[in-house]
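Input for the complex:
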Amino acid sequence: MNPPEHEELARLLPPPTITGLPGDRHRLLKDNLMTHLRETPARPSWRGPLLIGVAAPLTIVATVFALFRPPAEQPAAPMAAASRPATSPAHLATAEAKPKQLLKLTVHSAGKNKIDFDRLVKDLDAQNVNVTAHRKAPKCAVMMVVIVPKRKANGDFAVSIPLRDLKKHPVGVAFTFGAPKRNKDPEFDSVIFTYDSKIACPEK
Amino acid sequence: MEHSLRARVRAGDPDAFAELFDAHAPVLYRHAARMTGSPAEAEDVVSLTFLEAWRLRARVRPDGDSLQPWLFGIAVNVLRNTTRAARRHQNALVRLPPPDAVPDFADELVTRLADADRLRAARTALNHLRPAEREVVALCVWAGLSHAAAAEALGVKESTVRAHLSRARARLHRLTEKELQRRYAGGQVRVDRAPAVRSIQEQPR
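Predicted:
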C-alpha cells in the first residue's frame, strides 16, 4: 500500500488519542513483573522428555486449583472486584470454567505403587501451581478422595476428573494411587493437595 | 546495543527485561487499549505480554533489529486469547493491586473519562473490520509499525499485510459512503456512527 492510501486509511479510521500508561501504573506493572522474574530464576530452556510430559497436565492443575480457591482467600480485595470486575484475568478464567471440563493429572512413579513425591513437589513448584502437597492421607471429611488404580505403560499414574466434582470440595482433593486391598499390606500411595497451606487438613 | 540486549534477553537477564519494559510498555499499552477499549484490560495485556516474553525468551533470534515486533507478536497472541495467557500466569497477576478507585486530581479523572469515550468509539470502529484486518490496521496505522514489522509480529508475509490493509480501506470506504447516503437522505443515524461520522467530518469538503 502506497503512502497516500495509508494516509487515507488513517483518515478513515483515525487512531484514538489516549494519554497512555500513567506513571504510577507503569511503575507498579514493572515492579510486579520484576518481582516475578527474580522469583523465577532463569532455567535452561531444554528439559528432559519426562518433565515435558508432565508440564502440560500440571498446568491444568494450576488452573483448576486457582478456579476453586475459597473466595475469602482471594488476594483481590472487594475494592478490586468493584473497580475491575469484568476485565481481571482471574475473572475471565473463572468465567471460562465449564462443567464438562476435566482435570488431568500425571504423577511419576517411584517403583511399584509408590509415587515420586519429591519430584512431584518440584514439578508443582516449577510450574507455580498454587497448591500445597501433603505426603500422608488426611482425616479431613470434606475432601474428595480419588482412587487411581491403573498406571500408564511407563509406570506413571494418570487421572482425569470432571471439574464439577472438584467444585463440591473447596478444601482440596486427595489422590490415592494403586488399589487399597483389605486385610493385606497396603499397596497404594497417596498425595493430598490443599488449596492453601493455612487450611491444610490434619495429617495422620 | 539491540544485539547485546537480545543476548541478555535470551540469557534471562531480568535487567534486560526491565529495559524492554521501559522502552516498549507504553506503546504496547496504547495498542492494547485501542484493541480492547479498556485501560484495565490493556494493563493486563501488557503484564501478560512481558510474562510471556520471559517464558519465551529462548525463542528470540540471536540477530535482528528492534525487539518491538517480537513483543507486538506476543501481544497479538495475548489479545487473541487473554484467558489462556492469564491462566498461565495467574500467580503473577493476582498480586497486582487495582488502580485507585478515586484519582487524586479531578483533571486526571476527566482525562480518564475522555480516554474511555475515545476507546469505546475506536472499538466500535474496529468492529466493522474482520479480525485479521483489525490487527493489521491497529499495528500499521495506529501503532505505526512498518509492513515488515507487522508481518514479523503477525507471522505472515508482507504481501498479506498489504492485502489486509487494502481490504480494510475498501470496507471503510463502503461504510463511509453508506453513512453519507443516510445523512444526506435526512435519515437519523441510530447506531455505530462514531467512525463514519468522524471520517466525514475530517474529510475535505
